[in-house]
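Q: Could you write out the predicted structure for this multi-component system? I'm mainly interested in how the pieces pack against one another.
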Amino acid sequence: MKPLAHDSGDGGESSSGASVYPLMISVVQDGISRVEKYRFTKHHILSTSKSLISTVALAASALAGCGSSTGTAPTIHQAPAQKQVDQPVQHVFVILKENHTYDNFFLSYLDPNEPSPPAQGLASNGRMITITEPSKDDWSPGDNSFEVAHVDFDGGIMDGFDQDAHQPDPTGLDRFLHADGSDGAYVSYGVTPEAGRRRVGY
Amino acid sequence: MLSDRWFTSELSQSFPNHLYLLAATAGGDISNPNLDGDFDILDPQTGKTRQESHLSSAEIATALPVELEQAGLAWTVLQETDNIPILNLGANFILDLAASVGDVDVIRALPDFNDRLIETPDLETHMAEYIAKGWAGHVTFIKPNDVNSEHPGVGDVTGGQKWTRAIIDAIGNSPEWAHSVIILTWDDYGGFYDHVVPPQVDGFGLGFRVPGLIISPFAKKGVVQHERREFSSIAKFCEGVFNLPAMTARDRDPATDDLMSAFDFGQAPRPYSDFVP
């Protein structure tokens, strides 16, 4: 997929008043040209896949006229001297990744002294939804705002994860906000020990 | 050591949880910044919200970088950026690419703020050099760009975890390993299901569980721990290690675990090879 042109609008207002930034990209795939339109607000995510990010990146670089997708290598200077502390722990490194629950990664990583966690999750109508393995490696269950999280939490009942924010958009107009499958929140990359050990590519 | 009662600090998304990591509070923030850089502050007494563009000392009075500097100690933020600058525009409000430090007035006011907030593309290929040139502070916060973040919709899990492995390898294979603690965690629930009810300790959280892993020569081996932990536990741990004062009700709360039980400082220090499959 190779972009031919790129047009970024000046932004506008959606019906909810949130900022909307239209982005149109002309792409050629298998010799056929088409225009893809994207928009996002603060609750949206820019793209649905790395490949799309690459597309946007290439389009952006083409627009900028630089034609290069590599960043400038930083010059790393020597840090100022710092106080030496004579104790076992002298450095704490915190690596902060994004947006996955314990169950989403580690459901099957059992403590042998603890009861097995449920392989099903509670939904709003009382039904139990079987937790399945996501069908791809960048599975998206939709929104995670304060408001959505509180509906999921539901005062401690934990039965809101099947709300619309985590379901596919039936209109198909908004590919950014919604889940990649029905009941999209109820997935785990470690749903079984086998799944946990599997080397993805999904 | 894997922790299975490690909760996010707030029942919300990235930005407020990043603030808890820095300050054991989000100063009332309940949202990510929008494209104008504004976010929502909730007054839990009235239930009303207001918009702010930064967190003043009235909202966040102090933070780990401030406490460290006052003790003569060093902090570093290593924030990975995208190779393509325009992508950072999109990622800024998803991932908080300024690592939150730029929005907290008491941190931004530190004299060496611009030196200690390091932004670089391809951090995984430069990490070893940053360590070799002395940028491993007493506390170092490491944040990926969007593609390497594992954030659904912008970064896949496989690529993100390869990046994490490269970062940890760089620390583990450096001379600093012998006296290091690596804490690996995820900033919010991302919309995914989790079955454990997060305890509610104030008007903001705790939020849903995320994985919490500790990698260190002194980390206990082969255990899953159940202590109630959240991002304020990291602050509490740093306060214990570096003799710093507590900052908020969260890190003062005896029910907030301080991570110390994850370690056995009497055991033979584990070589990094002990962690490599």
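A: Regarding packing and overall arrangement: Chain B has a mean pLDDT of 94.
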